[in-house]
Design a protein that fits this description.
Elements (H helix, E strand, L loop, with lengths): L2 H23 L13 E8 L16 H12 L4 E10 L1 E3 H16 L3 E11 L1 H6 L4 E4 L4 E3 L11 H7 L23 H26 L3 H5 L6 E3 H7 L4 E2 L2 H11 L7 E4 L5 H8 L22 E3 L2
Parallel strand pairs: 1-2, 1-9, 2-4, 4-5, 4-6, 5-8
Antiparallel strand pairs: 3-10, 6-7
């Protein structure tokens, strides 16, 4: 395929996506009958979770986008229920907690929330699921992994072989904590463990609150182990086994919606979203090769290794 043909194909695909997005935001006639009582929204939480925006209009949304959409749904009186479709190994602590705050805000505004777990909903993915009114997993879903992790690379030996030496000037004894040029000191390891323990305690309390379980029962499961959906059901971490359709039906029942309510999904970006992502004036990123979804460097993570 030559360059001209490739560019033509890309232009046609982009044009089709714009038309689909435009159609998704065109005004529709007011629904009657089974659609008159409200609608159900689906939020996809796919891939590693981190603060920021996705790199392209078709990539999985970043935590800021997910939180923003949940915030909008929380004040939409026509949205009666939300299905969180989760397929994620988790991510950074701050990003997970910001999305979770919006989930709780939706519930405080009377929305019913159901989590539908796909291939993986582990660590931070499960953190978010635990805040839902009902959690439904496939029997083979990988979930659980309740815990916190923080990683540092120690390249001291490699640097020595290459003849590389880092000179550090710092304002305090621990300012270069986690430097790849040297191992952690015992004191630094103690300081980092304290941060890990605090974030871990927040995770355990969030699960206990969301699942309405005693703390000691959650602590018996919080050593980082993973569960299949069936094992999670037996442990009380999920409410039922089922697929995405089962989750949609459960959400409709909880919100007293018709069996086949109008469903609003974020799987196709709206024209406004596309324009924002390509506009330099948007508060989100303009089109660029690299994503703004990570600030780089070590971070506390609710992530399945």
């Amino acid at each position: 395929m030559n360059r001209h043909t490739l560019l033509t194909a890309i232009a046609l695909l982009y044009g089709a996506a714009l038309l689909a997005a435009l159609f998704s935001i065109l005004p529709h006639r007011k629904k009657s009958g089974k659609y008159a009582s409200g609608r159900l929204a689906v939020i996809h939480i796919y891939g590693p979770i981190s603060t920021g925006f996705s790199v392209s209009p078709w990539a999985s949304p970043g935590a800021d986008e997910i939180a923003r959409r949940l915030h909008r749904l929380s004040s939409d009186d026509q949205v009666k229920a939300i299905v969180l479709r989760i397929n994620s190994p988790g991510g950074t602590v701050g990003a997970v907690q910001e999305i979770d705050e919006e989930i709780l805000r939706c519930k405080a505004h009377g929305k019913k929330v159901v989590a539908s777990l796909g291939d993986v909903a582990a660590s931070g993915g499960y953190y978010l699921a635990s805040s839902a009114d009902r959690v439904i997993a496939d029997s083979g879903t990988i979930t659980g992994s309740i815990g916190v992790i923080m990683e540092f690379g120690n390249l001291e030996g490699l640097f020595q072989k290459l003849g590389v030496k880092l000179e550090v000037v710092k304002s305090g004894a621990h300012k270069d904590i986690g430097s790849p040029a040297r191992p952690l000191t015992p004191e630094e390891r103690t300081l980092l463990q304290a941060s890990i323990d605090d974030a871990y305690d927040q995770f355990v309390n969030a699960v206990a609150r969301g699942r309405r379980l005693p703390l000691d029962r959650v602590r018996a499961l919080d050593d980082g182990r993973i569960f299949t959906g069936r094992q999670a059901l037996a442990a009380g971490l999920v409410d039922a086994l089922g697929d995405r359709q089962d989750a949609l039906e459960a959400a409709a029942r909880l919100a007293n919606l018709p069996p086949q309510p109008r469903v609003e999904s974020d799987s196709v970006p709206s024209l406004r979203t596309l324009v924002k992502r390509f506009s330099s004036e948007s508060e989100g990123p303009s089109w660029k090769v690299f994503s703004d979804r990570s600030a780089g460097g070590p971070a506390l993570e609710y992530r399945w290794q």
